[in-house]
Design goal:
- By secondary structure, the protein is an alpha+beta fold.
- Helix content is about 40%, strand content about 15%.
- Strand 6 and strand 7 form a beta hairpin.
- The longest helix is centred in the N-terminal third of the chain and has 62 residues.
- The termini are far apart.
């Protein structure tokens, strides 16, 4: 049997070496493609994040400028969109209004609440019972004397005197079922300070004011007048740059005499964010 001379390579050895090289190159190419794709995704994500942060900052600056104008008396609430100082290619619009559109169950009397519930579509007896339950909830002294509402012959609640902060709090009242709560939600606010007036954009609230006679109260004041102290103001700002748009919303209580910041923030949030 003839032995293969030492130091020589066969065709099979060379083919295996070539195949190993090709496999290695293919693997390296796959790693390179994956790294490139990951890098591009990271760049796009970084660009979106940068755009989002910049637009949010500009929108918040527009809201702050609007609030300073309102608190110092240099401007009045303007519910129509109007331009704010623009930054390079960014377009910014802002609007503001005193929140007098809804009813705060913590401040409203039983008569107004009953009229609102009735105007929202609830039966008269149910409206009276629910309004009595709410009134007795934050008026424990009155409730203790026997002035409590009832639904189906049962006592509606155990008065605590604590204010309602959320709709979950309100749902604790007997008779305040999820379906009833969904009917009432659009007409209620837990942050509004003043009673609403007939400038409200809510037809049910306007109808309730008329029925209850609250619309003739001396505290009624249209939104275009100078806000009083401790007025809840809602401000919206939209910053747009190309395909990017940022909508920011703030609700604050104006405190004109407070320093250094003449307002207290109730809510400050992003309402809409869009990138194509």
């Amino acid at each position: 049997m003839t032995e293969k001379p030492q130091g020589t390579r066969t065709f099979q050895d060379e083919g295996f070496a070539l195949l190993l090289v090709l496999w290695t190159l293919g693997f390296l190419a796959l790693i390179g493609a994956q790294t490139l794709a990951t890098g591009r995704s990271a760049v796009r994500l970084g660009d979106r994040t940068l755009q989002r942060v910049q637009l949010e900052t500009l929108a918040d600056a527009a809201i702050t400028s609007e609030l300073f104008g309102l608190s110092t008396g240099a401007a009045r609430p303007a519910p129509q969109w109007h331009g704010a100082p623009e930054e390079e290619s960014t377009r910014i619009v802002v609007r503001s209004q005193a929140d007098r559109n809804r009813v705060n169950p913590n401040f409203a009397g039983q008569t107004l609440l009953a009229a609102l519930f009735s105007a929202s579509g609830l039966p008269t007896d149910q409206s009276q019972a629910l309004s009595a339950a709410i009134f007795s909830w934050h008026m424990p002294d009155v409730a203790a004397s026997g002035a409590t509402g009832s639904i189906g012959g049962q006592k509606t609640c155990t008065p605590t005197g604590a204010p309602f902060h959320t709709f979950d709090d309100l749902s604790a009242l007997p008779g305040m079922t999820p379906s009833v709560l969904n009917i009432l939600k659009p007409h209620l606010s837990f942050s509004q300070i003043q009673l609403p007036d007939l400038s409200s954009t809510d037809p049910a609230v306007r109808q309730a004011l008329t029925r209850s006679g609250i619309s003739n109260s001396p505290d009624q004041k249209p939104d275009n007048e100078q806000p009083e102290e401790e007025t809840l103001i809602g401000v919206d700002a939209v910053a747009t740059r190309g395909a990017y748009r940022m909508n920011r919303h703030a609700e604050v209580v104006l405190l004109p005499d407070a320093r250094p910041v003449p307002w207290r923030v109730v809510r400050w949030e992003t309402t809409t964010r869009h990138e194509d």
